[in-house]
Fold this sequence. Notes:
alpha/beta; 2 domains; six-stranded mixed sheet; 6 strands; 45% helix
Amino acid sequence: MIPQLAAVSLLVVLVQLVDRIPAPPPRPHRGRGRPTFYTDRLFLKALVMMIVKHVHTPYELLTVLAQDTPEMVALRALLTEHGRYPTRRTWERRLAALPDKLPAQIRCLGTHLVGLIQPWAACGRAVAADSTVLRAKGGVWHQKHRQAGEVPHTSIDTEAHWTKSGWHGWVYGWKLHLLTVVAGVWIPLAAELTPANEDDGTTMAQLVWWHSPELPAEIRYVLGDQHYNTPLLRAIGQVRGWELVATHRGKRPKIDPGKEVRRIFHKLRSLAIENLNEHFKGIFGGHAQVPTRGWRATRRWALGAVFVYQLALLYRHEQGLDLNVGLKAFLKAAG
């Protein structure tokens, strides 16, 4: 039973909120091995705690949960199913597998938020696509050492890669790919983390096509920069009934009647996605190096942060609070 003292904990409230969110449809075929005893929701709850408390490994999670405080007693009760509490090995195995299920959960919750908040009630039904770079933890792996197969320092995350950003220059790390609502409130609809050298257009095509049934049916416009102006994304747009509006390299002809309309679209995209990127990085410390090493752990942290951001939007919407201002202070209070 949850102690009464813990009822005021924002973290406990957020963890309890996981029980009320929709889940993506199950996979049609389960792989080999033993049937799972614990549901994915239990490990989503643990992930919320890890992100809010800045805990990044199963060992740290279990160490914090073992503390004899009212809040930890309440959280241990919420992380119990069928009268059983997962073993250390179960925590390690299921948390390692959780990142593969987070993109679908993010799309499902994003669509649920659109239905509740109705961000397109007074504006066009557009979404914006972009990627933002996250610096890898530790040192950088220079190309001459990578090509020679040499790792000069143990702090280097060898699973990250290089990319050149128009704003930050050359960065060694990761790309967080985001699809967000273009409206007065920034709602992430899809997210994925890849090494920094992965192509933006290809990754976004996977997010909006292979899993498109989980995205809002109201979408009519997809806004992006030149990296999303690809034949594949245009073909996907034709099939789904979406209009892709993206910049391209080179000069446009002098006679271009659609120029001013596209200028408005590009301005809307910039206001939505750039604000979300900076807002997200400011809340979760994305301007510094990521707190984890390796693609799997970093993917769990980055996508987990997007999920917690969505969960905070849901809570604040239900409480009638501002959805763009105060999220950082809110999550700090929860931690």
